[in-house]
Specification:
Distance between the termini: 18 Å
Structural class: alpha+beta
Largest sheet: 8 strands, mixed
Number of helices: 12
Helix content: 25-40%
Radius of gyration: 21 Å
Bound molecules: flavin-adenine dinucleotide
Shape: globular
Number of strands: 22
Strand order of the largest sheet: 5-13-14-17-12-20-18-19
């Protein structure tokens, strides 16, 4: 007798939507979810802005781990597109990928996300304006749930699942062993057996995922990391774009190195926040749906994609080293005024205090040119001037740059078009597979695999 039919490792969007779909299609199956972090209501980051103002390196980061995964306190920007957010379509086809993203969007809006707005780039005048300024606006529909509604949706989905599925919180899986067609999920001294195992450990589980791949002899590939800064400026500078599109994903090819720089994770009237990945503090952002909770600033990342060729393989290690440098100099994230950067001087507390843009994150004033490689910094500066043409004010002296923001890509694991490994019944989904990098793609991958399992 096996303990479970299906064990899901990780309760981020990937794991949650696998569990949801299995509970709908195959209520007869015995399913368990093992999650290293806490229940949704127990997830609390100790940073309160008063006693604790910066990351204290908790053993399990409440922002990244727990029910809802890395997405729980995210801005809940649910992008329905194959243009970015992952390459799930390469495995399951563009049409199916979009269908599944829409399916999850429907579930979200009927479970707490009612009344949220779906923005779209189709027919927008900004496409032309961008092209006229050497910028390229990517196509997408984006539902902005907002951090508050996103939390509500997760709460409602947990309420649906909690009596149908066995959830184990604060339970970090040590390893997975294959014995014929049975999987043994090892947690400390205990072993749980199942015939199907879905691994959905996200970015916070990237090191663990690599170890499991080594142990099980699963091939991995990795050659990309995106490095840059988070820009914060008065919301009014981007308001013409954000009020129509909410988030504009804009790509620019630099003149000097022909590198691709892109805007990422735009948060109108939002907040800049710390992110802790495996002990390294980087920067991110989010915003609330409710006007009462909004700030006067908009923030977004500017990221330069760095692809490495042979023989270098450790692209994430490269990104981590750069992030560590900012942690070493600033004790965490560094903030610098654009004007100071351009004048070749560090920002200090007085210059930040006198700046017209009030920072929403307490970061250490410093000099990003001591942290970021010249090629990356040059790309960011070029892009800021390019954006200044479509959103005048972007290149103002008081625009704040927080660094570093790093988008780590999990190494891609060798999986087939069922998102299944060479071991029958062992699936790897979501950001942990390296195939997805977003709420929508991760959730869609969860539904896809659940349907494959439900088919039998
Ligand atoms: C601050 C922030 C804001 C974001 N904003 C957006 C946004 O607006 N839109 C968007 O599309 N994306 C956003 N993202 C990215 C998005 O959250 C992720 O793409 C998505 O959560 C990936 O889902 P996942 O299920 O693959 O992994 P995750 O959400 O990372 O979940 C994985 C879970 O697995 C658990 N786990 C890991 N290892 C183990 C183990 N060994 N045993 C048991 N459990 C384990 C972790 O604790 C975690 O809870 C944001 C991310 C962050 C950090």
């Amino acid at each position: 007798m096996l303990d479970y039919d299906v064990i899901i490792i990780g309760a981020g969007p990937g794991g949650i939507f696998s569990a949801y779909e299995l509970s709908v299609l195959r209520p007869d199956l015995k399913v368990a979810v093992f999650e290293a972090g806490k229940r949704l209501e127990d997830r609390k980051c100790p940073i309160d802005g008063k006693k604790v103002t910066s990351c204290i390196h908790c053993k399990s980061c409440a922002i990244m781990r727990g029910f809802g995964g890395a997405g729980a306190f995210s801005d809940g920007k649910y992008n329905i597109t194959n243009d970015f957010g992952g390459t799930l379509y390469e495995h399951i086809g563009k049409e199916t990928a979009l269908e599944l993203m829409k399916y999850v969007d429907d579930i979200n809006i009927t479970h707490g996300g009612e009344g949220t707005k779906l923005y779209s780039t189709s027919g927008t005048k900004f496409k032309k304006i961008c092209l006229e300024n050497k910028l390229h606006l990517l196509d997408a529909s984006v539902r902005h749930l907002g951090t508050d509604k996103n939390y509500e949706v997760l709460g409602q989905i947990f309420a649906l699942l909690k009596d149908k599925i066995d959830f184990f919180f604060d339970t970090s899986v040590d390893s997975v062993k294959v014995e014929g067609e049975t999987y043994k999920v090892i947690v400390g001294e205990k072993e749980y057996t199942c015939s199907k195992c879905i691994i959905s450990v996200g970015r916070s589980g990237s090191k663990w995922m690599q170890d499991i791949c080594n142990e099980l002899g699963l091939e991995t590939y990795s050659n990309r990391v995106d490095i840059g800064v988070r820009v914060e400026l008065p919301a009014v500078v981007f308001s013409h774009l954000t009020s129509e599109l909410y988030e504009s994903k804009i790509v620019y090819r630099t003149e000097k190195f022909e590198d691709r720089v892109r805007t990422f994770c735009m948060n109108p009237n939002g907040y800049v926040v710390n992110e802790n990945t495996n002990g390294i503090v980087t920067v991110n952002g989010h915003s609330f749906d409710s006007p009462d909770l909004q700030s006067d600033n908009t923030n977004f990342a500017l990221l330069v994609a760095k692809h490495f060729s042979e023989p270098f393989k450790d692209s994430n290690g490269y990104g981590e080293s750069i992030a560590k440098l900012s942690n070493m100099l600033g004790g965490g994230v560094i903030v610098q005024r654009f004007g100071d950067l351009m004048r070749g001087r560090r920002s200090n507390a007085t210059r930040i205090e006198e700046s017209s843009v009030r920072p929403t994150l307490k970061a250490t004033p410093g000099d990003l040119s001591l942290v970021l490689p010249k090629r990356i910094l040059d790309g960011i500066i070029e892009m800021i001037y390019a954006l200044d043409k479509i959103a005048p004010g972007t290149a103002n002296d008081d625009t704040l740059l927080y660094g570093v923001e790093v988008k780590f890509y999990n190494m891609e694991v060798a999986i087939d078009d069922n998102l299944e490994t060479k071991y029958k019944g062992l699936y790897i989904i979501g950001d942990g597979s390296g195939v997805t990098h977003s709420l929508s793609h991760a959730s869609a991958s969860g539904v896809y695999v659940a349907r494959k399992i439900a088919e039998g």
